[in-house]
Design a protein that fits this description.
Blueprint (H helix, E strand, L loop, with lengths): L9 H8 L3 H8 L7 H14 L4 H9 L4 E6 L5 H16 L3 E6 L4 H12 L5 E4 L7 H9 L4 E4 L10 E4 L1 H13 L6 E4 L6 H16 L7 E2 L5 H14 L5 E4 L2 H13 L9 E6 L12 E5 L1 H16 L7 E4 L1 E4 L6
Parallel strand pairs: 1-2, 1-3, 3-4, 4-5, 5-11, 6-7, 6-8, 8-9, 9-10
Antiparallel strand pairs: 10-12
Length: about 325
Amino acid sequence: MKNKTNKVTIFDVAKEAEVSKSTVSLVLTQSDKVSDKRKEKVLQAIDKLGYVYNRDAAALRSKRSNLVAVIINDLTNPFAAQLAVGLEEHLYAMGMLPMLVNTAESYQRQQQVVKNLKEYNVAAFIMCPAPGTEQVWLDELIQHNFPVINIMREVPYSRAPTILPDNKKGTHLATTHILEQGITDIAFLGGTDDISDYHERLNGFLSALEKFNINTQPVIKAVTNRQGGRDAFNQLYKLAPHIKAVICFNDVIAYGVIEAIGQHGLIVGKDIKVVGFDDLADSKLMSPSLSTVAIDAHEIGKRTCHTLQELLNNTAAPVRTLVDVSLQIRDSSK
C-alpha cells in the first residue's frame, strides 16, 4: 500500500486495478462505457488505496450520495430565499445535504451547473427551471439515473415530477375579490411568456373576468422585478388612465407598481387597488399593507421531499402536485 505521506493518484488506482487511467476516469465520472467487472475492480482499488473516502466509493457503487442539488432560478427574488429555507429544513430531516445554486434565469447556466454537479454524484436535482428549459434535456438527465423534481414551474410533457402552487386559483381569487367590489377597470401586470407560472396566473385572471362576464382587460408583460413593476404601470397608465385595480404577477412587481402609482399622485387602496402574489414577509409591513396570494413555502418543501423519498425508493411518485394557496386581504385592496 502507498505510504500515507504521499498522495494517491489516479495512476496508482489504475495500476492496482490493472486497467488504464482512462478506464478509472470513466468509472469516476459514472460512464456506462465500462463493464461491471472492470468497474468493480476500480472501486476495490479505490477502497484499498484510499483514493476517495469509503463513503464516496460506496456512493459510486450505488450512484447515490447524500447531496441534493437545489437549483434556484433567481436568488435575488425574496420568495426564492423563503423557498430555499423551506426545502433545506425538510432535506436535513431526511439526512440529505442540500447544495444551493443560482442560475440567474439562464438556461445555459443551468445546463452548465447540472453538468458540473453530476460529477459530485448528487442523489437528485431539485430545480426551478430557467426559461427555455427543454423537455428532452430534462428527460435525458432522468435517463442517466438522476432523479429530477421541478418546483414552482412546469416543463410541459417532461417525466420530472412537478410541485406547484395553485397559481390559477390564486389569481382567480384575487381578481374575484376586486370584481366583487364592483370594479371592472382592472389589469394584469408582470411576468413573461417563457415561464409556465405566468400562463397559469394569467389564466386565473382571465377565468375570473369570464365568470363575471367582463370583457378582456389590459395585460402587460414585464420582467419580474421592481423596475419591471414601475415600467409596467407607467405603460398601463398611458394606455388606460382610468384604471382602478391591478393584479400583479408577484409581490416584487407589486412593490414597483405601488411606487409608480405614488409618483402619479394617486393613492394605493383608494384610487387604485393592488394585489400581489407570493406573500413576502415585507408585504404585510408596508404602508399600505399589500393584499397578496400566499404560498406556503414550507408545504412546497414538504411535498417536494415526499416526492424525493418516493423517487429514491424507486416507487411511483405523483406526476403533478398542486399546493393550495390563500388570499390575504389587506389595506391595498380593501
